[in-house]
Amino acid sequence: MVVGSAAFFLYHHCQPPPDLRDVELVECHSVLILYCDDCEEHSRVIFELGQVLHQCAKAVVLLDQNELNIPGVRPSRWLIDSMCRANRVIIVISPCSQMVLDGKVLQQRRPFPDLFAAAVNMIIRECTAKIVNSRFAICRLPYSPKTPDQLSILGIQEFSVPSNMPQLTAFIHQIDQSSHVQHSFDPQLLESFLHAVNEMENVMKTNADWMQHRFVEEVGNKYDLDGVVKFCDIPNRVPTLLDTKEKRAKAAEEFGLLPPDENEVGLACLNLVFIVKKYV
């Protein structure tokens, strides 16, 4: 048995390492990052992750921190638009993810609400309606707990960062991950990302009950939702066509759009119908 083990070790030790294929990233792909606003330190980790993907993985990163601080942008509208135009959607697992998906509500810490639960509901609808879920991926950080059941049951592929950063880059650019791929990353950006991760891990170590202060207080099986933006499901019904100029102008004002020209009536109606039908 010892001889067999030694022979096995020598065989694998003497085997040449797999050929690594350098990848030149030519095209830019849009990536939507979804996450819970656990705390300031965790959101900083997400920001640094977005910087790495933008600078090193050549991704157009759609991130609420960058786009929802602009006055006049509606969070719900931005989420729907981003889900529609993103080539890839990355779901980051964090300590608060499971509780948010179980119905608990985070206190709003920023000028815009937390979009994680609403976004995951959209993903579940899309995944259950299709066999192929290749557009979505789960991202695990060094301090991520186990993936929530609501997501693990969907069979979405997972990547641990920073160790799987090359594989995540291959996923973003639709490169075959079965082949060995290598891609260089900016050491300074990775250092900033890891520093943010360390800051978050220090918060978790030094303040064991930090999550208790992040959720809206529950009183009598109800939450005090004053100041919390509520998301409502779009009713499952036949969409109404905007057949008059007045209706189109009202819809444009409601959704933050410019009123369409007369020669774009058909296209404007088609776009609005598509957005409504896609997530019912």
Automatic annotation (TrEMBL):
GO MF entry, a single one: interleukin-17 receptor activity
Record-linked PANTHER family: INTERLEUKIN CYTOKINE RECEPTOR-RELATED PROTEIN 2, INTERLEUKIN-17 RECEPTOR
Sequence ranges assigned to domain SEFIR in this UniProt record: 30-171
Localization in the cell: Membrane
Organism of derivation: Heterorhabditis bacteriophora
One Gene Ontology cellular component annotation held by this UniProt entry: membrane
Keywords for this protein: Glycoprotein, Membrane, Receptor, Signal, Transmembrane, Transmembrane helix
Name the UniProt record assigns to this protein: SEFIR domain-containing protein
Membrane topology term: Single-pass type I membrane protein
